[in-house]
UniProtKB/TrEMBL annotation:
CDD domains: ABC_Carb_Solutes_like
Species assigned in the record: Shinella lacus
PROSITE patterns the UniProt entry points to: ABC_TRANSPORTER_1 (PS00211), ABC_TRANSPORTER_2 (PS50893)
Entry annotated with the keyword Mitochondrion: no
Sequence ranges assigned to domain ABC transporter in this UniProt record: 4-236
GO molecular function, one term: ATP binding
Key word Acetylation present: no
InterPro entries: AAA+_ATPase, ABC_SmlMolc_Importer, ABC_transporter-like_ATP-bd, ABC_transporter-like_CS, ABC_transpr_FbpC, P-loop_NTPase, Transp-assoc_OB_typ2
Official protein name in the record: ABC transporter ATP-binding protein
Keywords for the protein's UniProt record, in alphabetical order: ATP-binding, Cell membrane, Ion transport, Iron, Iron transport, Membrane, Nucleotide-binding, Transport
Family according to the record: Belongs to the ABC transporter superfamily.
Pfam families in alphabetical order: ABC_tran, TOBE_2
Superkingdom as given in the UniProt entry: Bacteria
Length: 344
């Protein structure tokens, strides 16, 4: 069962193909994150779903109702879709209460109670109702914008990089708060973001766009651990990519023999996430190791660059704890945890 269905949606701007036959299904009550490099089509996709743009071809349905069939479709204000943008788009001359109630029906008898309910839902102190947007922090402004969007009782919520202007700590807290609010309200959401870590932590489903095409969609864990290609692997996080010979469930590579999740046989490229590799200082200069050429201290998680022994490959970068951190020049052994992913 799905709430939103996109079927081979395409859109061109002159010679530029912004979207190329994109098909995607969004289950009800879920959170989907759309990610991709700049120019991949994320914003165009969001605008088509919202109704601000129409596709050249393809179909878009919401809860079984056809919203767009090529360039013909339902206008944005009749779709029952809420949207929260990066800057919140609050009206500076209106109070928090009036901003939240902006989309209410005129003369709604339950106006005050609905404002109070929405403020409580997004975890805003009721005493803030009389404040103006400039008297709020960035996080509070985004909560007001979310409350205003929720006030329309949308079937689907679109989040257009709503956390990107916030400080790192506040961004994480807001992301968790918004996910909690949407889940409690039972509202399906689509997040467009350039932050891969944000997408992986927020969503039940991640969709990767590249050059207007949907490259891969699935759970965050599946995409992170089993990306379709090396570009997707590197886009979703740090990765160690190594040439290998694969046979009988193992890969022989610069790190020695590594277990793989594949029945492939022959030459291949394998991927390990840096957290799968443990760095152990070992003066014996083991074959499955090398020499530390650089250490970048980052607090709890540090980056260690290791030049592999007897291998003409660039140094590999490994994320490791700051506890027992090796120093530049140390000989180290690299122990692998789990299985490597093999690109088909």
């Amino acid at each position: 069962m799905t709430l939103l269905d996109l079927e081979t949606v395409s859109k061109r701007y002159g010679p530029v193909r912004a979207l190329d036959a994109v098909s995607l299904s969004v289950p009800p009550g879920s959170r989907t994150a759309v990610v991709g490099p700049s120019g991949s089509g994320k914003t165009t996709l969001l605008r088509i779903i919202a109704g601000f743009e129409f596709p050249d071809s393809g179909r878009l349905s919401l809860d079984g109702a056809l919203l767009a069939d090529g360039p013909a479709g339902v206008p944005a204000h009749k779709r029952g879709i809420g949207i929260v943008s990066q800057d919140g788009a609050l009206f500076p001359h209106l109070s928090v209460a009036d901003n939240i109630a902006f989309g209410f029906e005129r003369g709604a008898p339950d106006r005050a109670s609905r404002i109070a309910e929405l403020m409580e839902m997004v975890e805003l102190d009721g005493a803030m109702a009389t404040r103006r947007p400039h008297q709020l922090s960035g996080g509070q402004q985004q909560r007001v914008a979310l409350a205003r969007a929720l006030g329309r009782r949308p079937r689907l919520m679109l989040l257009d990089e709503p956390f990107s202007a916030l400080d790192t700590g506040l961004r994480e807290n807001m992301r968790k708060a918004v996910a909690r609010v949407l889940q409690n309200a039972g509202i399906t959401a689509i997040l467009v973001t350039h932050d891969q870590a944000e997408a992986l932590s927020f969503a039940d489903q991640v969709a990767v766009l590249r050059e207007g095409r949907l490259v891969q969609a699935g759970s965050p864990q599946m995409l992170y651990q089993h990306p379709r290609d090396r570009e997707t692997a590197l886009f979703l996080g740090d990765a160690v990519l190594l040439p290998a010979i694969v046979r009988n469930g193992f890969a022989d590579c610069a790190l020695g023999r590594v277990a793989v999740e594949s029945d492939h046989a022959g030459k291949a490229e394998i991927m390990l996430r840096p957290e799968q590799i443990r760095v152990v200082v070992d003066a014996a200069a083991p074959q499955n190791g090398g020499r530390v050429v650089d250490v970048q201290f980052g607090g709890a998680i540090c980056t260690v660059a290791v030049a592999l022994a007897d291998v003409a490959l660039p140094p590999i970068l490994i994320k490791t704890s700051s506890v027992a951190l090796p120093a530049a020049g140390n000989l180290v052994r690299l122990d692998v945890t789990g299985k490597a992913h093999v690109f088909g």
